[in-house]
Amino acid sequence: MNCIIIDDEATARAIIGQLCSNVKELTILEEFPNAIQAVKYLNQNGIDLVFLDIHMPDFTGFDFIETLKNPPKIILTTSDSNFAIQAFEYDCIIDYLVKPIAPERFLKAIQKAKDKPNKSSGSSEPSEKVETTSGNDLYVNIDRRLIKIDIPSIYLIEAKGDYINVKTEDKNYTVHSTLKKIEEKLPENLFLKVHRSYIINIKKIIDIEDNSVLIKRDVIPVSRSNRPELMKRLNLL
Amino acid sequence: MEQPNLSYIHSMSGGDKAFEEKIINIIKTEFPLEKEEYYNSYNAKNFKLTAGIIHKLKHKISILGLVKSYETAVAFENNLLEGQTTLNQEFESILINITNYLKQL
């Protein structure tokens, strides 16, 4: 089984890697400190099993699962047993391992993964080639100054806790606000919320894969529920 | 106070000294950074963020065999999410305990 490990903690990645090294059927292809990087990787590589931490900053393990159209088998690894019920609402989740992971318990989870029949994963589906179609000023309050931002130059807005990060062609702005508030100020024909943490300028999309968009150098996840609207907004050949 | 130990790491390694050395080095690198993050966010009274950092530290606390300290960390994480800080000193003594232990390794 080809596997990847997604965990923001290097110690956890090393331990899971060690546990995998004792199981000859498992091959660790890659490790990721955050799930966003892994979304792109999954789109390009055939993966049978993902060891996924739930509790990661900005983009949780559950956010990750939500972005996948056909997720591979997933074993959750977490220091928190409170999410067990939520976890088993997802068919792709094979098991739920609480850290520190005992070797015997790990082997039991692997056996479950082996026993569960394979489903076609999202990674094996062809990526879609799309062309985008599709433009004001926005004043934001930063350190008691009202800064003007040219709306069409915004390519991405991401939620960061109580703040939003507004990325433009030449500068980034961190503003104390919410995605909901800024969304109301942006032209609907240009901007789209593709995930609960991201609004993108659809004119700035470079490419789209199954469940992520590339804007500038940012790979942004697209929630399953938001994908139909995104596709509707594109001029597809 | 209970003392950290390497029992879990030994149980994982199966005698693989290279792995033991690797995991200890990772903990020695990662722990001070997380500890600093903890103090920064706690002193800034960003308790939600602090709880998230404790969540990560919990794993290392458990790896180092600190059973009671782990329970304290779980309770402190939950308390911080409710804005309570009463376990602060107890938790910080755990961090000191681990820091001292890692210096000896």
Describe the structure.
- The complex is a heterodimer of chains A (about 240) and B (about 100).
- Chain A folds into two domains: about 1-125, Response regulator (Rossmann fold), CATH 3.40.50; about 135-230, OB fold (Dihydrolipoamide Acetyltransferase, E2P), CATH 2.40.50.1020.
- Chain A is built from seven helices and 15 strands.
- In chain A, strand 14 (about 210-215) and strand 15 form a beta hairpin.
- Helix content of chain A is about 25%, strand content about 35%.
- Chain A has helices spanning about 10-20, 35-45, 60-65, 85, 105-115, 180-185, 225-230, and strands at about 1-5, 25-30, 50-55, 75-80, 95-100, 135-140, 145-150, 155-160, 165-170, 170-175, 190-195, 200, 205-210, 210-215, 220.
- Chain A is an alpha/beta fold and about 240 residues long.
- Chain B is mainly alpha-helical.
- Chain B has one domain (about 15-105).
- Chain B contains five helices and no strands.
- Chain B has helices at about 5-15, 15-45, 45-65, 65-80, 90-105.
- In chain B, helix 2 (about 15-45) runs antiparallel to helix 3, helix 2 (about 15-45) packs antiparallel against helix 5 and helix 3 (about 45-65) runs antiparallel to helix 4 (about 65-80).
- The longest helix of chain B is centred in the first third of the chain and has 27 residues, at about 15-45.
- The chains are: A alpha/beta (about 240), B mainly alpha (about 100).
- The interface between A and B is medium-sized, with 19 and 23 residues.
